[in-house]
Amino acid sequence: METVVGEEMFMNKKIIRKTKGSSLLEVLVAGVIIAICAVMLVTGFITAYNLIAESKYIKDKSDIASSVIEGATVTDPEILVVENPVGKITYEINNIPYEINGEFTSANDTTEVVKFVAFKADSRVE
Amino acid sequence: MRQMTHSNNKGSALVWALVTIFVLVIFIGTTLTMAFSYYNRSLINNDLKQAYFTARSVVDALKDEIQADTANGQAILAELDTVGDTVNIENINFVGDSTDQGYITATVILEETDTIIITATAYIGERTKTVTLRLHSDGTVSDNPIMEEFPGVTIPDDVVVVTNTYPIKNNETSDIYAEANATVMFNNNADYSGNIFAESGVTISINQGSKFNGTIYAESGTIFTFTKLHNQFLGTIYVRDGSIIKVNGVNYTITENGASVNVSPSGMDSDFKSLLKIYSGSSSGDGSWGGNVYE
Q: Which residue of A has its CA nearest to B153?
């Protein structure tokens, strides 16, 4: 039995619409749309992945660097510790200037995305 | 006219495609938002940590100055006459490091006659961290004879208190507090690098071969005996200006002479004389600010 789909009666004229298969143009347009969506998807996920990876890197290095500032032994070769013994804090009390000599200790990763600095006065009592 | 009834699926593919894309866009958007949030939080945590280190550096530096009774510490204490007095530390800057350590404010408040509160707040970007330290005056330390002659010197809690005789052996680093008339003896070939706090009347006996890289705080009246100093007996002996110490049976008066010292009468062993330094620390007389607690 033959089934005719898409026939419409209009003013005694039979209009036949093509419903089977797709034209080349439709296929191309669909392909482009799918490709754009795919690129968006992949790009979005890659971006998200990179961000999460970077966040984890910062968090991990930050934990290590802050521990080093607190006096822990450096175990991560990517964390660099620099001590600058010629530092000082300057301040004023009632517009009279004062300064405290001491040293800076900084701990940073190789990219310097993570970097912490602390100051210790020369007058500190260990 | 005969009616035909059948479900109409025309255009549903487009709807499905739109729905799918919409869902995916929401999913990606959510994922990216979470990732950005995680990333930002890591950066915020970094700023907060640096703000904490900055604030604590300032608090520690002020605390150290007060505890060590330096001129800076005395300048702060001089402003704290009555309970409730507040010293505002202004225009705080770190010199010698280019890292952004933020904007800092600090105050020192005399909360009680024996309690000082030091507070510092650091601002990095929109992040803020405050560190507060409570510093207590430890009146018991100022009663110590050594503290009277050497104000500002801190005697560790784990110091070894000697009332009789204490022999120093090899590779020893313990700090020693020798009470009046006690004896501290450097054994033959001893190697010592700690601190000795000697009250008046203490005898410090140095046997041959002894090495020394520490510090002796010798009250006036301290007695030193030795026959020959090892060339690595290189520590420092602090005395007050005008102190009298007995070295190998002779009383010498030690006075300041520029960067060096004068001994009277002359004739002291030059190797021993080179170890002597005049102690110049001072105290505000308010007692030692010792114990501290972060809040």
A: A125
